[in-house]
Design goal:
CATH class of the largest domain: Mainly Beta
Number of helices: 2
Bound molecules: copper (II) ion
Order of helices and strands: HHEEEEEEEEE
Helix content: 10-25%
Structural class: alpha/beta
Strand order of the largest sheet: 2-1-4-7
Number of domains: 2
Shape: elongated
Number of strands: 9
Strand content: 35-45%
CATH topology of the largest domain: Immunoglobulin-like
Oligomer: single chain
């Protein structure tokens, strides 16, 4: 306990300078460090049936903003399923047992979009989160 308190005291100048560095974040050098990098060329998704529910796995897809973003969606069931992102104008049908590449329009950061299956209203929805890119 005593050691922890001393460590915190020693760390406080470091914390103070970190807070100061964040407080002056309006400078161009600092703003370049905002946002995320993304090393993936395509994000893989599966349309599957779990129990009695049709689902997309993962149910939350995370991408960075920009152009050339691709989803590769495999339909692991024996029936066609839809894959629709209404706000982005994306709508396609996933054939059973097939991988479908979906090229997305240019994405802007700071948005959360709904993904649904337009063939089955009960198909559980998914979410696309678009982060700011570096
Ligand atoms: Cu479906």
């Amino acid at each position: 306990m005593r050691f922890a308190a001393r460590s915190l005291w020693l760390a406080s100048p470091a914390l103070a300078s970190l807070l100061f560095a964040c407080a002056i974040g309006g400078q161009p050098e600092h703003s370049r460090t905002q946002g995320f990098t993304d090393e993936r060329s395509a994000v893989q998704v599966v349309s599957a049936k779990i129990g009695a529910k049709n689902v997309f796995v993962p149910s939350t897809i995370v991408l960075t903003a920009g152009t050339g973003r691709v989803l590769s969606v495999f339909n692991d069931t024996d029936t066609p399923h839809g894959f629709k992102i209404p706000a982005l104008g994306v709508e396609t049908v996933l054939q059973p047992g097939q991988e479908t590449k979906i090229e997305l329009p240019p994405l802007e950061g700071g948005h959360i979009y709904e993904i649904n299956c337009h063939l089955h209203p009960a198909h559980r929805h998914a979410t696309l989160v678009v982060l700011d890119a570096k």
